[in-house]
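TOPIC: backbone geometry
CONTENTS: sequence, C-alpha cells:
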Amino acid sequence: MIDWFDFIFHINVRHVITIIGIVSIIIMLTFERKKPEAALSWILVIIFLPITGIVLYVLFGQTISVKLRLRIRRKPKFDAKVNKILYDQLKLLNNEAFELKDTNMEKYVDLIRLNLKQNGSLYSQDNAVKIFTSAYEKYRQLLFDIENAKESINLLYFIIRNDDIGRKIIQALTKKAQDGVIVRLCYDEVGSILTSPRLFKPLIKAGGMVQKFSPSIFFLKLQANFRNHRKIVVIDGKIGYLGGINIGNEYMGLKRIKNWRDTHIRIVGSAVKMLQLRFFLDWLYVFDDEDLDDFDEEKLNLYFPSKIEAKGSTGVQIVSSGPDSFDDEIKNGYMKMINSAKKSILIQTPYFIPDDAFLHSIKIAALSGVDVQVMIPGVPDKRFIYLGTLSYVSDLLNYGVRVFKYDGFLHSKSIVIDDEVSSIGTTNFDVRSFTLNYEVNAFIYDTNIGIRNRKIFEEDLKYCTEITQVDMDKMSKIKKFMCAIVRLFTPLI
C-alpha cells in the first residue's frame, strides 16, 4: 500500500517545479499554435534540459505576452475607418475596376490583392521613390528633411547609437522640437541596449516625446525575441523613409567592418500614409498618453494629409509583419513574387536562413528556368548565424541557384523579379525576420525602379566572389559539422 502522504512529502521541490513548468509550456505551445517542427523542438529541449529549457522558452519562444498586449492596445474606432477604405479598394480589384496607371503591372494584380487582403496594405500610384545605397547619402538627405520639417517628425529605429551620427540626428530633432515641431522618437529596448537614455534628455527637455519599444509585460520584459526591427521616419505626413540603415557610425563603415553595403529608400506620395499608420500603431503600442481613436479631423489631417502633391507615378504597398500578425505577411509577399517570376530573381540579404516553404519556392523557380541569384556577405557580423546561412548555400547550388559573397558586410534586404517588381525594407530572408521580429517592407511596382535595383545588384557583383560547389566541398569537416548543428536550431521559434 502506497503511503501517499510520505510520497508527496519526499518529492523533490525541483521536480515539482520542472513538471509544472513543462505542463505549462506545453499548454502555451498549444495555445500559440506554433508550427509543428518548432513546437516539437521546444518540447524536446524542455524535456532534456528542464530548467534551462523553461528559461530559454520564456526569453526566446513564447508569444502569449505579445498577443495579450496587442488585444489591450486595439483601436476599434480607428480600425473601422481604415477597414472601410481597404474594403473599397479590394472591391474595385475584385471587380477588375481598379485602374492601373502602369499597364505592365496588370500581371501583378494578384500580388497587390494578396498584400491588401492579408495586411490591409493600400495600393497607391502617385509615389516618387529614391534608393540610397550608402548611409552617408541617407543621413545627409534625412538631416535636410528634418531641418525643413514644418509640423511633425516621427521616427522608429531598431538601433540608435550614442556616437557621432546619433548625436547629430538627436541635435537636429532637438532644435526642431524647440521650434515647436512635434517630435516622436521610438527605439527598440534590446536593439539599443548599449545606448544610454541620457542621449535623449535634450530632446525630451525640448518637448520631444521618446519611448522604448518593448512589447513584453511583467517578468517577460527581458525577452530577447519579438524586437521591433523596423526603421521608419515620417516627416509632416508627406515624406517617408524605410530600409536597412539604422542610426550608427557602423552603417558608414566607421567601426569594425569597414566595407558596409546597405539599402534604404525615401518615398514621397500617398504610400507615406500607410507608413505613418504603421508608425502610430507601434507608437501607441507602448505610449498610453495618445489614442488614435481620440484624434479629431484636424489632427488626423495633420498626420494623414488628405491632399498630397503627386511627385511620381510609382505603385507602392507598405507591408508589415510580426509576432502579433495573423500570418507571415512579408514572407508570403516574397514567395508570391518568387512564384510570379518568369525570367529573373535577384536577392540581397545579410542572413539566409529560410523555412522549408520559402526554400522550396526558390528551388522550384530555379528548376523552372528562372535565373535566381542570391548575394550574401563575405564578412559576417554574427559568425554563428553565418554558419546557418552557409548550411543553405549547398541546397541552393544543387538546384542551379547562383550564390555570391560580397567583399564586406552586405546588410541590404531586397528582392527584384523580372526587372518589374521590387521589395526593399527591414526584412532579412530568415526565420527570425519572417516570424519573430516586427518588420516593414515597401513592395514597389515600377519597371524603372526594378531596372535600377538590377543595376545596383550588378554593380555589387563587381565586389563579389561566386561560391561554387567546389568551394563548399573544400570546407573543413569541423566547419561543415558546425553548419549542420546551427541549422538544427533554426526551428526553435
User: Anything to note?
Assistant: The radius of gyration is 24 Å. Residues 49 and 433 are 27 Å apart (CA to CA). The longest helix spans residues 13-32. The first strand starts at residue 124 and ends at 132.
